[in-house]
Amino acid sequence: MQERLSSWGRCIRTQRLRQRITAAELCTRIGISEATLRRLEQGDPGVGTGIYLTALLTLGVVDDAAPPLPPPLWSDLPQRRVRLSRQERGGEDDADYF
């Protein structure tokens, strides 16, 4: 996850500079402080994902940086369920683990 946030941050900075958008202007457009923009451009995981996506959208690169999810991931089609491990089910195999 950190690698993706770092690449999004680099993308935001690169696109902002290529498009000659000042830090103050981008901050105004997406409603954040300049301190938050610095953290965003550094890939800080403490910055909300929504802010990353808003910045990418504002810069016109959201579909390249975060492509839309394929329909099977969000549609109402039946999906396989994740099975619990024996330990999570309370199986005896892991009873003396601790």
Notes on the structure:
By secondary structure, the chain is an all-alpha fold. It has a domain at 2-67: Orthogonal Bundle (434 Repressor (Amino-terminal Domain)). Helix content is 52%, strand content 0%. It is built from six helices and no strands. The protein has helices spanning 2-18, 23-30, 34-41, 49-58, 62-65, 86-89. The model has no long low-confidence stretch (mean pLDDT 87).
CATH architecture of the domain at 2-67: Orthogonal Bundle
Mean pLDDT value: 87
Low-confidence runs: none
Alpha-beta classification: mainly alpha
**What is the CATH T-level topology of the domain at 2-67?**
434 Repressor (Amino-terminal Domain)
Query: What is the beta-strand fraction?
Result: under 5%
User: How would you sum up the global shape?
Assistant: elongated
In DSSP terms (H or I, runs of 4 or more residues), the helix count works out at 6
Corresponding CATH superfamily of the domain at 2-67 = lambda repressor-like DNA-binding domains
Radius of gyration: 20 Å
CATH domain class name of the domain at 2-67 = Mainly Alpha
What is the strand tally? Answer: 0
Pattern of helices and strands = HHHHHH
